[in-house]
Design a protein that fits this description.
Helix content: 10-25%
Shape: rod-shaped
Order of helices and strands: HEEEEEHEEE
Structural class: alpha+beta
Radius of gyration: 34 Å
């Protein structure tokens, strides 16, 4: 009977050891599947730029008042030339979750200071007594930069689904238009 008790106790200990090691293995594999979502001592949450900036085209901001008004033409065939130089800032709309320097590097332009842009244009031949109202409309190259939030663990980055898009407006050659008057 003592032998049966010893064998039974030994079997009970072996079963307990086996079940606890299986439980530990199952527990470890469960956490292993979700480590990318759990904060770690050597990881952190952050924002990053996703991909290159996306070029969206040129945006023209129409002028509502004349830039200048020419004098009246003294004779048929005269022309009027307009030379324009504007100092415009690169602007950003939206919430910058990453540094402005990171956004600037993605677009390839500084976000500080101004950019001087110029244009020159000549009217068609004017008739005697005709004059010109000159309108100058700033133009901008438009880029979108997508920022994503996630968890950085060593060299791996796990996105968590949050994104913020900022729009960057870079000044380019302004548009000049003429309104002919008598």
């Amino acid at each position: 009977m003592k032998l049966v008790r010893k064998i039974f106790s030994l079997l009970l200990v072996v079963c307990m050891l086996f079940s606890s090691s299986t439980a530990l293995a199952a527990d470890t594999s469960f956490h292993g599947l979700h480590d990318e979502l759990q904060p770690q001592d050597n990881g952190y949450y952050t924002w990053k730029i996703k991909g290159p900036a996306v070029y969206k085209g040129i945006e023209t901001r129409p002028s509502t008042s004349p830039y200048s008004i020419s004098g009246k033409a003294a004779a048929d065939g005269e022309t009027h030339q307009t030379n324009v130089t504007l100092s415009l800032a690169v602007t950003v709309s939206g919430t910058c979750q990453v540094s402005r320097d990171a956004i600037a590097a993605t677009v390839g332009v500084s976000l500080t200071g101004t950019i001087s842009v110029g244009a020159s244009q000549t009217t068609r031949s004017l008739r005697k007594g005709e004059y010109v109202e000159v309108y100058v409309s700033p133009q901008y190259q438009v880029y979108e930069v997508t920022q994503v939030h996630g968890y950085q663990l060593h060299s791996d980055f796990y996105e968590d689904g949050r994104t913020e898009v900022v729009t960057v407006y870079v000044p380019v050659t302004p548009a000049i238009s003429f309104v002919y008057k008598r």
